[in-house]
Amino acid sequence: LLDEGQFPKGSMGPKVQACVNFIEQGGAQAIITSIDHIQDALLGKTGTHFKK
């Protein structure tokens, strides 16, 4: 989806790319969320989650 331009560079693109890079380098998971929703994101209730 990144290669197709689904995530614009000024929007989610850099965040998604950072998560992909993190997972590819051995990270277990990555989450995109706002600081206001971090607790719910860690519980899996909100946010965009990446896992290998």
UniProtKB/TrEMBL annotation:
GO terms for biological process: L-arginine deiminase pathway. GO terms for cellular component: cytosol. One of its GO terms (molecular function) is carbamate kinase activity. InterPro entries: AceGlu_kinase-like_sf, Carb_kinase. Keywords: Kinase, Transferase. This is Aspartate/glutamate/uridylate kinase domain-containing protein. It comes from marine sediment metagenome.
